[in-house]
Amino acid sequence: MLSHNQLRIGTRVEIDNLPWIIVTAQFVKPGKGQAFTKIRIKNLVDGRVIDRTYKSSETVIKADVVDVDMQFLYGDGNNWNFMDPATYEQYTLSEAQVKEVIPWLKEQESYSVTLWAGKAISVTPPPFLTLKITHCEPGIKGDTISGATKPATLETSAVVKVPLFVNEGEFVRVDTRTGEYVERAKG
Amino acid sequence: MTLWQPSATLEVLQARAHILNQVRAFFQKRAILEVETPLLSPSTVPELHIEPWRCGSFYLSTSPETYMKRLLAAGSGPIFQITKAFRSDELGGLHNPEFTMLEWYRPGWSHWQLIEEVGDLVAGLLGQPSRQTRSFREVFYQFTGVDPLSASYSQLLTRAQALPSPPPEGLDWEGVLDFLLVELVEPNLKNIAGLLFLEGYPESLAAMAQIDPGPPPRARRFELYIEGMELANGYQELTDPDQQAYRLHHTNQRRRAQGDIEHPIDHRFLAALHAGMPSCAGVALGIDRLVMAILKQPRIEQVLAFSADRLG
Predict the structure, then answer these.
(1) DSSP-derived secondary structure for B24-39
(2) Which of A31, A160, B67, B89 could be a cystine partner for B37, CB 3.0 to 4.6 Å?
(3) Band of the pLDDT at A138, cuts 50, 70, 90?
(4) What share of chain A has pLDDT > 70, as a percent?
(5) Would you call A32 and B233 a contact, using CB atoms and an 8 Å cutoff?
(6) Could you give phi then psi for residue B7, rounded to 5 degrees?
(7) pLDDT tens, B98-155?
């Protein structure tokens, strides 16, 4: 149980039998009046955002949510399968649950899978991934300063802007949070 | 880690010191006596929603009010104090558990006169923005559609339940009023420029203010808001010792009813009222918030040398 002053940004709470993450938290109190904590929460399952207000004597249930590093096994279009390398236990997520991260899913790679009451509800890619370019226009040798870019399709299907000197078949390091090219890398 | 460093910049601390000098100069010019009263007391004023810190067998002061009134009863004349106040469990963008309060009293004055003087002080420090005084009733009604002086519990609750974010369970009448205040009224006050005084509060929110019998009856209490931030709270002070004793005991009863412990009452404060405290108006003003408003700092820790998260 969390008291109102433990309701902080990033804390994961269970409200109306669903898991949420606190996006903003604000303590408000008219001088001599009732104290409240206003929180804005994002649903960890479907992403919707709502506001709730608690009075100072109320408690909120801490969500039974853990993040586990898991290996991505394969996706067949409907089901996306991950394995906890510590237990060899497999977890399946639906296409809707992984939709936003599909362009970053690479088999054998490690991802953070969020479990709620033992069930997988979402996947977060590592902040940086090294991926192979499967398609882009041919490179312009020596052009390392113009700052011009071209689109490149990566092995996971993500499309990122890369400098002109980068070639198809090469590996690049990308920031999965912004979708931006960081540097050329070894495979 | 950098948490050893002050939470305010040195520029803000210099400006804060200058503001404190200006505040003292304001009172010196008006021949108001600066006083200091105890921070540690064996008693505290019971409040429904203010929790004092215990310190051994004492309480840390949540307000200098009762001691300053004992001085008034002793014939001090007009007095002011800049002091620390301590309220546990209050922490947020506008709250620090230990904060600086300016409190002053004007014997022989009405709270309407004191509203003018609070305006003179604050507007002077803020570069003379506009000032207005409106009734709490009218402003609350404007933003909620509910009359706070006549609304029943179910009328208030119905309005609160119509909001997208529902009210917490188990709020009493005043609690629902506070909920509507923080959800609907104060956010709208952010859009009102300058100094906004609200006057005439529901009778049950009188605290230590006199009641204007009306009809409808209302507390002779005012609050100052600056762009939605509550800055000061003032009263036409209650001088009747029996009424004061009743309110203190009644608050203790309500504390017990809501599951909180009762607090010992300062009987020397009541004795002072019996001896005769002059008719007066008094006000408490949050110095940290005043500095925030003047220096345009949005969070209280930005004006404190060391906020609660930087304690050693």
Answers:
(1) HHHHHHTTPEE----S
(2) B67
(3) confident
(4) 96
(5) yes
(6) -85, -20
(7) 999 999 999 999 999 999 999 999 999 999 999 999 999 999 999 999 999 999 999 9
Cross-chain residue pair A29–B167, CB shorter than 8 Å: no
This prediction has a pTM of 0.85
Q: Could you give the CA distance from residue A79 to residue B200 in angstroms, rounded to a whole number?
A: 63
Convert the pLDDT of each residue in B45-83 to its tens digit: 999 999 999 999 999 999 999 999 999 999 999 999 999
Give Rg (Cα) of chain A. Answer: 21
| Helix B153-161 with B173-180: angle, nearest 10 deg | 40
Measure CB to CB from residue A27 to each of B92, B165, B168 and give the nearest one: B92
B270: helix, strand or coil: helix
Residue of chain A with shortest Cα separation from B91: A27
Q: Supply B105's token pair.
A: 């009293």
Chain B residues lying within 8 Å of A5, measured CB to CB: 89, 91
What contacts A54, CB < 8 A, 6 or more positions away?
Answer: A4, A7, A36, A37, A39, A60, B168
CB contact under 8 A, A34 and B207: no
Pairing of strands B211-212, B195-201: unpaired
Residue B198, both tokens = 């609200």
Contact A56 B205 (CB under 8 A): no
Count of helix runs (H) and strand runs (E) in chain A? 1, 16
Residues of chain A in contact with residue B165, where contact means CB-CB under 8 angstroms, are 38, 50-53
Compute the radius of gyration of chain B from its Cα atoms: 19
d(CA A77, CA B72): 80
The angle, 0 to 180 degrees and rounded to 10, between the axes of the packed helices B287-295 and B111-125 is 40
ipTM: 0.90
Chain A residues in contact with B183 by the CB 8 A cut-off are 53
